[in-house]
Amino acid sequence: MAQLWGGRFTKETDKLVYNFNASILFDKKFYRQDIEGSMAHVCMLAKQGILTKEEMQAIVKTLGEIQQEVEEGSLAITEEYEDIHSFVEANLIERLGDTGKKLHTGRSRNDQVALDMKLYTRLEVLYTDVLVKDLLKVLLRIMEEHTETIMPGFTHLQKAQPITLAHHMGAYFEMFKRDRLRLRDIYTRMNYCPLGSGALAGTTYPLDREYTAELLGFYGPTLNSMDSVADRDYLIEFLSAMSTIMMHLSRFCEEVIIWNSNEYGFVEMDDAYSTGSSIMPQKKNPDIAELVRGKTGRVYGALVSLLTTMKGIPLAYNKDMQEDKELTFDAIDTVKGCLALFTGMLSTMKFHKDAMRRSANNGFTNATDAADYLVKKGVPFRDAHSIVGRLVLSCIEKNIAIDDMPLQELKAISPVFEEDVYEAVSMETCVNKRLTIGGPGKVAMEQVIALEKEYLAEEWQDEEAKKWKK
Ligand code: ARG
After folding, report:
1. CB-defined site of ligand 1, < 6 Å
2. Measured in angstroms, how far is the CA atom of residue 79 from the centroid of ligand 1?
3. Which atom of ligand 1 is nearest to the CA of 23?
4. Which residues have C-beta within 8 Å of that of residue 468, sequence separation ≥ 6?
5. Residue 263 and residue 276: Cα distance in Å, rounded?
6. For the segment 228-269, what is each residue's pLDDT rounded down to a tens digit?
7. How far apart (Å, rounded) are the C-alpha atoms in residues 182 and 199?
8. In the structure, what pLDDT confidence band is assigned to residue 465 with cuts at 50, 70 and 90?
9. Residue 326, Cβ density class (10 Å: 0-12 exposed, 13-18 middle, ≥19 buried)
């Protein structure tokens, strides 16, 4: 059991206590960020004359070797160390002796862990963004291909008005676009460096915090050392944004599951994204969509858990905050996995245009347009609504669509109906007359698609990432 703080203690830590306290099993995940932070720290210490140039060079070189050995698998991160910070420092000291012991000058594990977690999360914000963008590209492709694919739009899961598949996909495009904006927003708010805040009250060494921040690609240093070591807002914001992504994915999954059912038959999942039943040979189940829907709860759980952990913590650092890691890591892995799988599933899914069209035709989705037709001929809307209500009732009795009702019978319900009604209530007219921006009409959809294309061509993250990627 290698501990950094044994000096004040006369007894060994109880084994159970040691295990309960230790974080190495999960914080080893950010060994790279820990080393990156330490390198920047010693560079700054040398610049300030706190370490010599030779000491700095030896430490940086040896830290690089440690990283390489971990990556190659020749140096194992084992449970004998309390946490990743102890692992790196102990290995450094083993190799460099007294010089290695100087690494932790002017630093505490409190600002160190705040930095490591921030560096790790910052990268994950960008990775998540890339995956959301991949999904948007697939959505845009489907939108471009299906501006004329008519399907029913629903309210209360009842057929409401005809729309197109492009329009339906476009709704999800907007949701995931907002998710990206949230990620970007979080990035710009979190990108300040806590290193140099010490345990809570800064240090007496003449550190150059601007310099460390710059080396690590931050916009600048954080401005209050107590807040620096006690702040996990950025994790809460990230978990919240990821929960929203999952909520969107889950709604989408729910629809895809319904569309994939025998009753709807709007879509068919590719074999590669479906599973069979051990007993029922005919089955092809949408398990991936169900799992994504199911995993949403787990990401919400992480958000609620961290909010609850943080709510009673007095300033500044408290060990409760170690609980931020496992659940955040799990949420990140879950969301990234779900995004990648969902995108694959969507991009290989077959859309059955005929079934969609049939469903739109058979659900009186043009009833509003039939009423509007009468209004244009001078009937007050409330009366038109009632006339079409009677018309629908009569169609239901005859088991036909509005379009199939002979003109004579239409006229019997209201003499205002004329031959041109059939054109007015055709699915194409219903969709394509809806031309205001944001509507399903082909022309309106094409305008939006052009805007989204421009949006996808922008690369905010290149600009951000350039600042710190080596
Ligand atoms: N493993 C700790 C954490 O994750 C690192 C900081 C430890 N600091 C301390 N004073 N015990 O929060």
Report:
1. 23, 27, 83, 109-110, 113, 317, 319, 321-322
2. 16
3. 1
4. 216, 217, 218
5. 18
6. 999 999 999 999 999 999 999 999 999 999 999 999 999 999
7. 31
8. low
9. middle
